[in-house]
Design goal:
mainly alpha
Amino acid sequence: MPLPPRLDEALRRLNSALDQLDAASTRRAEAEASRSDLAEELAVMQDDRSRLAVELDAALARSRRLDIASGDAKARLLQAAATLRNVLGADADDADSDGRAA
């Protein structure tokens, strides 16, 4: 037995509204999943940023220590070179005064 036209139209509109509600619900679930993925990705990126900041601080501290050690080594080498020049110069002066080479 066929339905009255008004009831048939109401059922079609109800089915259409239910389909739209189902589609909206699916889109919302997908958006929530995407948002959850983005939140997780953001947390991972923040952890990476923190780890990299700690590594950078350590590398900068090591670089400063190496600069200081390099400066100390340079000063010691300059002092050693000056000492060698003085010793060699004194030997040359001794050789000149004796008349013979050392």
